[in-house]
Amino acid sequence: MTMKILSYSLLIAALLGGGCSTGPASGPNSGRNIGAVTGAILGGIAGNNMGDGSDVNVVAGAVLGGILGGVAGNEVDKRREELEAAEAQRQYEYEKEVREQAKLEEEIKGLEEQKVQDNIARTATDADVKAAEQEAARVEAELAAKRKAYEESQERAKRILEAQERIAKAQQELDELEAKENGTAY
C-alpha cells in the first residue's frame, strides 16, 4: 500500500512540477514548485490514511495538497521577491546618498579653498607678494642644498662600502697566499 501511495504522489508531483525547466528548487517560482511537490506528497499520504485508502482518496489528497502547497509556496515567492526588491531599493538609495555626500564634501573643500584665496586677494599687497616669492626661493634653495648634501653623503657611503668589499677580498687573498707560503692551504 505504501508503494502505491508513493507512486501516486510522485506522479502528481511530476505533473505539478513538470512545467519548470530549471527544476523545482530554482528560479522565480521555486517556492510554488517546492510547495506543490511537497503538498502533493503529503496530500497523497493524508488521502491514503483518511477513509478507506482507495486510489480516489490518494489522488484527491495529492491534488488538493499540491494545489494548497503551490498556493502557499507562491506566497513565499511573492514575499521573497518583495524583500529582494526592498533590499535593492535600500542599496540604491544608500549608494546615491554616498555619492551625494562625496559631492558635497568636494564642494565644501572647493569653497574653503576659494575663501582662503579670496582672503589673500583682498588683503595682499605687492610687498606681501614679494615676501612670499622670496620665502619660496629661500625654501627651494635650502631644499636644493639639502638634496645635494644627501646625494653626496649617499655617494660617500657607497664608496666606503665598495672599499670595505675590496679590503675584505684583498685580506682573503693575502691570507690564502700566506697559507700557501707556510704550506698550510685551506
Biggest sheet, open or closed, and with what strands and sense?
A: none
Structural class: mainly alpha
Fraction of residues in β-strands: under 5%
User: Can you tell me the residue ranges where pLDDT is under 50 for at least 5 consecutive residues?
Assistant: 18-24
Which outline best applies? elongated
Distance between the termini: 96 Å
DSSP helix count? 4
Radius of gyration: 44 Å
Order of helices and strands: HHHH
Output mean pLDDT: 85
| Proportion of helical residues | over 70%
Number of E-type strands: 0
Describe, in plain words, how this protein is organized in 3D.
The protein is mostly helical and 186 residues long. The N and C termini lie far apart (96 Å). It is elongated, with a radius of gyration of 44 Å. The chain has 4 helices and no strands.
Summary?
The protein is 87% helix and 0% strand. The chain is mainly α.
Strands, helices and their partners?
Elements: H1 2-17, H2 30-49, H3 55-123, H4 126-182
